[in-house]
């Protein structure tokens, strides 16, 4: 569906461009005919020549437009320079064609080559081609701004949805029921200190989560602190079975990440790691840099199904699917989530996003 939308958008831009180019040169053609009439020159003898030159101008403009669209991601100054060079070349071709066509159609009125007249025709064509090129660069920029605004609006909506989903994950009855049950069990066993620690850990975790602004990115260190708070609650319940290891370089602690982006991955590691294994659970959370990308890795001991490519959403739980959709909406060009077993007893989820330092 996403590729279909992209193809439809490209087709609409092509149709609009073709319409604008044709209208642009048709208007120039009509203005020239009007000027000839005002100046007392019969336009009929020039119309065939002008029609051929206008047709060539349309073809050249479409070629220039395609080149501009192809290089739209390069530096603006370089774009302007290339547009200027292409405009000179296009104007030179149309000026030469205009000169030779006139002499071919009207041999009795053949015009001798005159540098001043040729330069006038050249600069007239240059102003038209360069004017169109500048307009189309602005048109593409406007489309990019509108697309960015749509992505931003979608990202905000996804962030709000993620906040609600995260709250659902964090305050779901199953989680609270097990935690409070553990508190009751500790009290009955005569371990009020442990029960108090568990309640304080739960309170700290919920308070930190509720105070989050879902529209703001967090430094990776803060995001990991939130996950540490969640894992602290779980470790109070499974202290004899759970071991958590962090591998995060100091220079990446300031990297910006969407808030609570790791929460479903960590919860998935705890839930399925403990659910599928009766032994000890090891959770490893790692971060590393690869070029201009930030990689976040969550691994756990688990028995899982065959490897699944997250963007395809095949056989996924709600949590992983939501993370995949959220990261792809926020970073459509480079945001990915791939998860699956790397061995019969180990499951891995790998997040990729642009590296942005606070």
From TrEMBL:
Coiled coil (UniProt feature): none
Gene3D superfamilies named in the record: Histidine kinase-like ATPase, C-terminal domain
Domain of life, per lineage: Bacteria
MF term (GO), any: phosphorelay sensor kinase activity
GO cellular component: membrane
Sequence ranges assigned to domain Signal transduction histidine kinase internal region in this UniProt record: 162-241
Membrane-spanning segments: 18-39, 51-69, 76-102, 122-141
Pfam family, one: His_kinase
Keyword Manganese (UniProt): no
Alphabetized UniProt keyword annotations: Kinase, Membrane, Transferase, Transmembrane, Transmembrane helix
Protein's name in the database: Sensor histidine kinase YesM
Organism (species): Phyllobacterium myrsinacearum
